[in-house]
């Protein structure tokens, strides 16, 4: 949820259980996500933490202060090595879109995975556990990624995001967004190209193509 506290009007965006389906099935792939902001948009987030208790993993970032993993500063990754592991958000509300995109990734020789926890998937781009994260289906909630968004930005990753209610996306329970994050700009743009080629989705028109009404129709 979201809360405004104190005279300065700090906004706290909290998801107490990101990955609830995993949790119910006994999987360790779930997390608590907490973000603090000084305004009402995603760009106003100044601190964020993603905590996965069953994994013993805590990833924290403060604006302009870098990323910490279990209390230790995260060393920034270089641009060398392979770029082939892409986490894809696959909410049931997204219908067939993420699965069609995964097929396209596989056709390009990339490895597609879905963990079922958006905060962990996005934060994994920061830590190096993944090379990219894509959720461009218009169903992503702001509470899922408010903390991880700051974390991945502080890690130096390339990020592109679009909100349903505003740009930058608003810190509102009604906000839905699309996001692509990659550890390099080259990979990020390749993923955007695939979105356009395969699904006709481009940042700037995603909510015109994948509107709430269209999503509801696809699920009926």
The CATH topology assignment of the largest domain is D-Maltodextrin-Binding Protein, domain 2
State the shape: globular
Q: Architecture of the largest domain in CATH?
A: 3-Layer(aba) Sandwich
Strand order across the largest sheet: 1-2-3-4-5-6-7
Provide the succession of SSEs.
Answer: EEHEEEEEEHEHEHEEHHH
Helix-residue proportion: 25-40%
Q: Please, what is the average pLDDT?
A: 90
* Number of discrete domains: 2
Q: Which structural category fits the helices and strands? A: alpha+beta
Main sheet record: 7 strands, antiparallel
Q: Number of DSSP helices?
A: 7
Tally of strands: 12
Taking the alpha carbons of the first and last residues, their distance comes to 28 Å
Using only C-alpha atoms, the radius of gyration works out to 16 Å
- Which range does the strand content fall in? 25-35%
Which CATH class of the largest domain? Answer: Alpha Beta
Low-pLDDT runs: 212-220
